[in-house]
Amino acid sequence: MNSAEYHEKVEEVFSAIEEGIDESGADVDYETSGNVLTLEFDDRSQIIINKQEAMSEIWLASRSGGYHCSWKDGDWRCSKTGLTFMDLVKRECSLHAGEEVDW
User: What is the DSSP track for 27-87?
Assistant: First the structure.
């Protein structure tokens, strides 16, 4: 995948996360700044999602650890868990929020 395709796919993911959080009704604040999307929860814990263009990956850092996701078989997949990136985000949001967060 070239750089333009990478950025387009990541921007789609960032937008989908923001829209999903809004739809879910979960009390999660989010902010995008440059290559980083920060999700903040009531207890002030955070999930940090960032672009890693040099690796063509998306990285997620949360209280349960760090995860690297790359584009495989038409979706972003976590190298550690095998989950799709969006399933990983929902799982981590649920852990931070103390309740199920789904969209």
Answer: --EEEEETTEEEEE-TTS-EEEEEEEGGGTEEEEEETTEEEEEEEETTEEEETTT--BHHH
